[in-house]
Amino acid sequence: MPRGASPKREREYEELKNNFQKSGRYKGRAKEVAARIVNKQRAQYGETKGEKEKDREGKSPDRNLPIRNYQHLTMSEVKKKIEDLSKSELKKVESYESKHKDRKGVHDAIERARAA
């Protein structure tokens, strides 16, 4: 694991590595595969040095959205925040969602918010 990984990610790495070794999957590559999985998760949730730098510089893909740190929110968290948005803000979120994660549940929540 790279320096700077949180204790949570360290535990996830150890669990994955141990599970792979016990089950015999990825023979000789268990450490590598576990590290790749955890590093991918770190990047998705903005925990890597590069992602943090993008946030500081204002280059994050979700910088113009009305919901702060949108790309790191779960679908249920997004649904709760959508209820308070105006129609123009809903349009921004819908456009971002279509281009990035494209989650059906979020699209449905946007439609319900528009109808209300």
Summary, kept brief:
The chain has helices spanning 7-23, 30-44, 49-57, 75-82, 87-99, 104-115.
What is the rounded Rg? 18 Å
H/E series: HHHHHH
The dominant shape is: elongated
What is the chains' assembly state?
single chain
- Unreliable segments (pLDDT under 50, ≥5 consecutive)? none
Total DSSP helices: 6
Instruction: Give the total of beta strands.
Output: 0
Distance between the termini: 47 Å
The amount of helix comes to 55-70%
**Percent of residues in beta strands:** under 5%
From the helix content, strand content and strand pairing, which structural class follows? mainly alpha
Biggest sheet architecture: none
Mean of residue pLDDT values: 87
How would you characterize the overall build of this protein?
With 116 residues, the chain is an all-alpha fold. The protein is 64% helix and 0% strand. It has helices spanning 7-23, 30-44, 49-57, 75-82, 87-99, 104-115. Helix 4 (75-82) packs parallel to helix 6 (104-115) and helix 5 runs antiparallel to helix 6. It is elongated and about 55 Å long. The termini are far apart. The relative contact order is 0.09. The mean pLDDT is 87.
